[in-house]
Amino acid sequence: YRVYDSYETLLQDDDIDIVDICTPTPQHAPLAIAALRAGKHVFCEKPMAFTVNEAAQMENAARENNRFLTIGHCLRFDAHYETVKKFVDEQTYGAPLYARLFRIADTPPSWFRDQNKSGGVLLDMNIHDIDAALWWFGVPQSSQCRGVFHNGLLSFSDATFEYSQGLRVSVHGAWDPNGRDFAMGFEVAFKNATVAWDSSKSPDLVLFQNDKSEILPVEKTHMYRCEFEEFVNCVREAREPKIVTPQSSRQTLETTLQLLQMCEASR
Questions:
Q1: Which residues of 39-68 are buried (b: 16+ CB within 10 A; e: fewer)?
Q2: Residue 97, C-beta contacts closer than 8 angstroms, at least 6 positions apart
Q3: Is the dihedral of CA 57, 33, 135, 130 positive or negative?
Q4: Which of 135, 173, 201, 260 has the smallest set of CB atoms within 10 Å of its CB?
Q5: Distance CA 151, CA 195 (A)
Q6: Closest CA relative to residue 163, chosen from 96, 236, 228, 214
Q7: What is the pTM of this model?
Q8: What is the pLDDT of residues 148-190, one digit of tens each?
């Protein structure tokens, strides 16, 4: 391994093609922009930035320097969520009627507990599920969100998205201050079937149809490995990332920040 005494020194190394940014959220934009201007392709952890303006600046830096930029919205590479995306796009079981996504964990330590640095459970963790909902169904016609703050930190949030044709999507997140084992999952009810998954119960999807249930085995893939492999291949093959784009990530950030403002306003 090569060790550098500063990120500026690292960015001067011509042997480096890709920079992976996994720092606290407020540092995402300045580091990403510096790396892009230094001629590096950038993989940045979610959320893309702390403000929509910062995200736009990252997009501009990538475009102006002819570099690729992607954000770590890893659920787009998880087989459970990819399967639902296929069902939605192909109308396998008819139109979607209702969806619920959830993500629950213990409150993380350190800077995560500073609302001004992490954005709480909504911006730091539930943004995964918000991105999945936008990926599956698109931008909602309207949305609402309420949250619970504990010691100044947004620890619980419940968002609702409304779509045309009556589709409603619920997104729940929790950083439980009393301690919880991590769990994530979803249920999506289509006109002719419902598919559900809870990571704390089974690795498989469950399909409910005609008063019967059946297991839908899911290919065992490592979403973190898959997202990195896709980005590296994009760089090698000189093709822009299509699964997670700067535009889609900025939209997810913008939607999440709107929900966060609703929680702040209802405190």
A1: ebbbbbbbbbbbebebbbbbbebbeebebb
A2: 166, 167, 189, 190, 191
A3: negative
A4: 201
A5: 37
A6: 96
A7: 0.96
A8: 999 999 999 999 999 998 999 999 999 999 999 999 999 999 9
